[in-house]
Design a protein that fits this description.
CATH architecture of the largest domain in chain B: 3-Layer(aba) Sandwich
Strand order of the largest sheet of chain B: 3-2-4-5-7-6-12
Shape of chain B: globular
Helix content of chain B: 25-40%
Structural class of chain B: alpha/beta
Distance between the termini of chain B: 28 Å
CATH superfamily of one domain in chain A: Chloramphenicol acetyltransferase-like domain
Strand content of chain A: 25-35%
Oligomer: heterodimer
Order of helices and strands of chain A: EEEEEEEEHHHEHHEEEEEEHEHEEEEH
Order of helices and strands of chain B: EHEHEHEHHEHEHEEEEHEEHEHEHH
Number of strands of chain B: 14
């Protein structure tokens, strides 16, 4: 029997509220199916299962807020016989946090650590640090033995500080987005980024006249809802450049950089009424332009409707942000931790430009890079930006 | 078992390949040569060369005045050693194994450990008692006890557990300089251990624990024969990315609280490995001290790997299952880290 658990959709997520089941007990599910909707600080997220089988039983009631890692449902995987009467005991749905089971002990009669009903399982070291720094342990999830909160958990919490304990937000039916919670999450992530990441900033101007001409030609034959935008070209170029310069694609965690073999470009999408999300366009380096454009449109539409998938929130390995359509010529982004780079895309402007010794009108865009100086240096950043510019000179090869 | 496995081992230009047994013998030879008041006394230590061949050749070298065979009478010859020490000699009494020391317990507890107190400081007992301890040789329940923890309960004596060649070679002389009784426990599984020892190795301190392997994730606290199993466990933990710090207590009484607490303050977790039985064990005492002195540093429940609470079995597989082994230590460490 496999457990379908409340996933972690980022380092700063402690808990989520189960909003809706999209399946019912007895339904068959397969790897990748979306089976539940969960509300987090980042909005309502559709959660995929990684198991194939039949939904055996729901363990958590809709509307319940549970810590990350809590089993939400049992999935009988293929080949498993239907169990006898002895089903695992359901979790007390109303409990604010599950009482951790005692850690498995090798040696026989050790007294298990079972905190009382109201107690928070936290180590003495964690309690001391939390008290000194004014952290509320009851709002936290532990990673220690039996799920106890450890010193390192409190440290992580402090690192993500600025995160106010979220009051349970009032949700109107059908309103998927909690903008106040999203603002809190953005505040935490951005404050942490500026506190921890030594940013450096580079700017590079690229002649995209060729791109515009190529796009005009290609789009002439296409209906408006299939037309390619220059943003798609830029996104693809960034993704390809990441393959050549892996120091900008990956995560910085536990004092070291982990380059990512896959390129999942986070697309910064503003949300009406305020708020921002940057869900991943998976494997952007391998998508043909038409497919990339289609997925980008889908991602924007779903994000603005508040329906992002869990994997899209957690996966981005680099972010691309553009404010060109709002007239901004150069944008210097703040890196979204644990990523290590964000590329900014400005407005395409007509400029007098020198080509082959003569001045002429050209379409020019300003590319910027905010890089994590712990991982890369300005020189590498310059090469990375130049590579993007070079790729944009041959749009037909993107 | 190779001592090379140990980190932080000083490298000397002049080293010799030796065994734990030879290191203890060398310590006895050295003491007898340096101090005319020193003599060795015990069952079969002379003609037979010692049950574990530690004193082999010493009778021929030093004669029966200095190497004295005794009757099978632990209470008698331990008492004689106490008397000799009170009268100004520096005896080394060898009790063949800790299993037989029960017969001498009255002498050790009621005389050796109390005379200074009872005589109003008129007499002291500068006596060293050596004995073998531990299981692992298929000698069955009556010959496989690990009772050093019991002796560590007694005020008035010191209890040492040399685990390395340096300590086997160096603790005896320092113990002989002590004005009060010192018990030295030699684990039976260590006598054949080979390794390199400085040619000029000599006396070492007997009041400090040693960090045998540095680490940041968990403190593994042990002594004697279990040190090597614990270091083996630390190596396999390292393969899983867990950096264990291994503390060799060296002295079981007094305990070096400062070294233990400094380590726990750093790692915030501890597992104690002790071949004694769990209930009322030395491990229990160490665990309690950690709770008393380092509670606010702890990040996980303390763990213990002790012997199972059974008479040590004779069959090899059951004997191995009854005493601490590296996989048990690994499992206990991982449990403390929430990694099971």
């Amino acid at each position: 029997m496999a457990e379908f658990r409340m996933p972690s959709l980022g380092a700063d997520m402690d808990a989520g509220t189960l909003v809706q089941w999209l399946v019912k007990p007895g339904d068959g599910v397969k790897h990748g199916d979306i089976i539940a909707v969960v509300e987090t600080q980042k909005g309502a997220i559709e959660i995929e299962t990684f198991q194939t089988g039949k939904i055996e039983k729901f363990l958590v009631d809709v509307g319940t807020k549970v810590p990350v890692g809590t089993p939400l449902a049992l999935i009988r995987t293929e080949g498993e016989a239907k169990p006898a009467a002895a089903a695992p005991p359901p979790l007390a749905a109303a409990a604010p946090r599950p009482i951790p089971a005692p850690p498995p002990r090798v040696a026989a009669p050790a007294p298990p650590m079972v905190p009382g009903e109201a107690a928070v399982a936290a180590s003495p070291a964690a309690r001391k640090l939390a008290q000194e720094r004014g952290i509320d342990l009851s709002a936290m999830t532990g990673s220690g033995p039996g799920g106890a909160i450890t010193y390192a958990d409190v440290e992580r919490r402090l690192a993500a500080a600025g995160v106010a304990p979220t009051a349970p937000a009032e949700r109107k039916p059908g309103a998927w987005l909690d903008l106040a919670a999203m603002r809190t999450a953005i505040a935490a992530a951005m404050a942490r980024s500026k506190r921890e990441i030594p940013h450096y900033y580079l700017e590079h101007q690229v002649d995209v006249t060729g791109c515009e001409q190529w796009l005009a030609q290609k789009n002439a034959a296409l209906p408006p809802d299939s037309r390619l935008l220059i943003g798609a070209l830029a996104l693809k170029a960034v993704a390809l450049a990441c393959r050549r310069y892996p120091a900008f694609n990956g995560f910085y965690r536990d004092n070291k950089f982990e380059p990512s073999p896959a390129v999942h470009v986070g697309v910064a999408i503003s949300i009406r009424g305020g708020g921002l999300a940057a869900p991943a366009l998976h494997d952007a380096d391998q998508l043909l332009l038409d497919e990339l454009m289609r997925r980008m449109r889908d991602l924007v539409a779903r994000t603005r409707a508040g329906r992002i998938r869990g994997s899209e929130i957690a996966d981005p390995t680099i972010t691309v942000s553009s404010l060109g359509e709002r007239g901004v010529e150069a944008l210097y982004g703040i890196i979204y931790p644990p990523q290590v780079a964000i590329v900014g895309l400005g407005k395409v402007v007509q400029r007098p430009w020198v080509i082959d010794g003569a001045i002429g009108p050209r379409s020019v865009v300003t590319l910027t890079l905010s890089g994590d100086h712990r991982v890369s240096d300005g020189h590498a950043g310059a090469l990375f930006l130049a590579e993007i510019g070079k790729l944009l000179q041959e749009p037909d090869k993107l | 078992m190779q001592q090379d496995a140990m980190q932080q081992q000083p490298v000397h230009a002049g080293t010799i390949e030796t065994t734990y047994r030879e290191a203890v013998r060398e310590a006895i030879r050295d003491a007898i040569k340096r101090d005319s008041r020193v003599f060795l006394m015990g069952e079969d230590v002379g003609r037979y060369g010692g049950c574990y061949a530690v004193s082999k050749g010493l009778l021929a070298e030093f004669g029966p005045e200095r190497i004295r065979d005794t009757p099978l009478s632990e209470s008698g010859f331990t008492g004689a050693g106490i008397g000799a020490a009170m009268a100004g000699m520096r005896p080394i009494v060898e009790v063949m194994t800790v299993n037989f020391s029960m017969l001498a317990l009255d002498q050790i507890l009621n005389n050796a450990a109390t005379i200074r107190h009872m005589s109003g400081n008129q007499f002291g007992v500068p006596l060293v008692i050596r004995m073998a301890t531990g299981a692992g040789r298929q000698l069955a329940a009556q010959h496989s006890h690990s009772l050093e923890g019991w002796y560590a309960h007694i005020p008035g004596i010191k209890v040492l557990a040399p685990a390395t060649l340096e300590d086997a070679r160096g603790m005896l002389w320092t113990a002989l300089q002590d004005p009060d009784p010192v018990l030295i426990f030699e684990n039976v599984m260590l006598y054949n251990m080979t390794g390199k020892l400085a040619a000029d190795a000599g006396a070492v301190d007997i009041d400090k624990a040693a960090v045998r392997r540095a680490g940041r994730d968990i403190s593994l606290i042990t002594y004697g024969g279990s040190l090597w199993k614990t270091l083996e466990a630390a190596s396999s933990l390292a393969a899983d990315g867990i950096e264990a710090e291994v503390i060799d207590l060296r002295s079981l009484r007094p305990l070096d609280d400062a070294t233990i607490m400094a380590s726990v303050a750093k790692t915030r977790r501890a597992v104690i490995v002790d071949e004694g039985w769990r209930s009322g064990s030395l491990a229990a005492e160490i665990g309690m001290r950690i709770v008393e002195q380092a509670f606010w540093s702890l990040d996980a429940p303390l763990g213990r790997v002790c012997s199972e609470e059974v008479p040590i079995p004779y069959p090899r597989h059951l004997e191995n299952a009854a005493i601490p082994q590296a996989p048990k230590i690994v499992a206990a460490a991982k449990a403390a880290l929430g990694r099971l």
